[in-house]
Write a structure and sequence with these properties.
The chain is mostly helical and about 210 residues long. Helix content is about 45%, strand content about 10%.
């Protein structure tokens, strides 16, 4: 299966166009035409705010509307596309649901395949070798590193994302949110809980 490789240190896999883009960016930075801090801020906003908000809206809609959730789980690609969350890095995305007895977690063992239209840019740790290897070998310890402690009888299922299939975790709805609007529900959904390395957070409640 093909993967989208990302490794800042090794450029041997980059295409000629990608190498030219990087060289141009370096030249523009050195001449002061672009502000590295502004670029970093833009990337951070897309990684942590703009992108994940799309996925959060999908999760909140599934929590609030059982019919929509069943359609989303049965035909995720078509349902997500109908909401406008498709295109580059969003093709072939499926949805896996957490339950009281099952916790899903996503990893890309070869690189960093990731549903960009739903979650924005992949976080640095998602692309790191230690996460990619440990998530498969000992997922519970990785979850503990993220502050997620599951009961011993909860099954942890690890999904290997590829260019042919990407995943969105549908977390369990937090308790005490009956009557909340979709917007309120979406505010509890973090990027990490849609990867499976976090849990929804109620406003004012610190992560465990």
């Amino acid at each position: 299966m093909s993967h989208d490789h990302e490794n800042d240190g090794d450029r041997s896999h980059l295409s000629e166009v990608e190498l030219r883009v990087r060289a141009l960016e370096t030249a523009l930075r050195e001449k002061g035409y672009i502000d590295p801090a502004a670029i970093d801020l833009l990337i951070e906003r897309y990684e942590k705010k703009i992108g994940p908000r799309n996925g959060a809206r999908v999760v909140a809609k599934a929590w609030a509307n059982e019919d929509f959730k069943q359609v989303l789980l049965a035909d995720p690609a078509q349902t997500l596309a109908s909401l406008g969350y498709a295109g580059m890095q969003g093709e072939h995305t499926t949805v896996v649901e957490n339950t009281p007895n099952l916790h899903n977690m996503v990893v890309c063992t070869l690189c960093s395949c990731y549903p960009w239209p739903l979650l924005g840019l992949p976080p640095v740790w998602y692309k790191s070798g230690p996460y990619r290897s440990r998530a498969v070998i000992d997922p519970r310890s990785v979850l503990l590193d993220f502050g997620v402690e599951l009961s011993a009888d909860t099954e942890v299922r690890v999904w290997d994302s590829t260019a042919e299939m990407r995943y969105l975790v549908l977390p369990m709805r937090p308790p005490a949110t009956e009557g909340w609007s979709e917007e309120q529900l979406a505010s509890t959904v973090t990027r990490d809980c849609m990867i499976g390395t976090g849990l929804p957070q109620l406003p004012g409640v610190l992560p465990r």
